[in-house]
Amino acid sequence: MPNPRVSPVVLLSPVEEGYVAYDPALDRLHQLNPTAALIAELCDGSRSVDEIRSLAGPLLPEGKAGEIDRWIDDGIRAGLLLWEGGASAGGRAFSASELSPITKRLKENGEILAAYLCVNATIEQKPDDWLAWYDLGEIAQCLGRREEARAAYQKYLDAHPEDGEIEHLLIALGDAAPPPRASDRAIKKIYKNFAPSYESRMLEDLKYVGPERTLEAITAVI
Prior knowledge:
By secondary structure, this protein is mainly alpha-helical. It folds into 3 domains: 4-83, Outer Surface Protein A, domain 3 (Alpha-Beta Complex), CATH 3.90.930.60; 103-180, Serine Threonine Protein Phosphatase 5, Tetratricopeptide repeat; 190-222, no CATH class. 56% of the residues lie in helices and 10% in strands.
């Protein structure tokens, strides 16, 4: 019988409750509890199911050893696991160029945890992708991972020292007392980025009607 292994397509990351796994091919996010996370770590293709049972079984509560087989079966059906050398052992890891648009789509859809996994995988393949470091800073900040956000933004700023906005964000993420106001460089950068979408954001997103109301008031008086 072939050995089980985590699919090369799947992206894994530890979280407080165990692991989180994202399959960009199927666009599925899976939350793995500590038991499932342990089994996933053991499923590297070098161990048989019997060996995984012998290693993980003693760590489980009495009478729960059957969870190992059940989780492996569920993992195979969900596409998280494959049989090493078996007919289903195909698949390949997504390249950085493939992951970048996926990260963008996930961010736009508010799927932040899945985007976090994708951008981390991008950086693992391309550590000099400075825009990916920027994205990681933004995504980590959304997830409340301040230290990780600060480290990612710093990586980006090292390559783009002229970016006043990120410089200001790093100050905000630091422990020192904030300055009285944002720097001129930061304000200019923020407004420069905001300018191309100003009208659509104000009219469509914020439903701004100041000019219309002003016109109505003037017309009424005249």
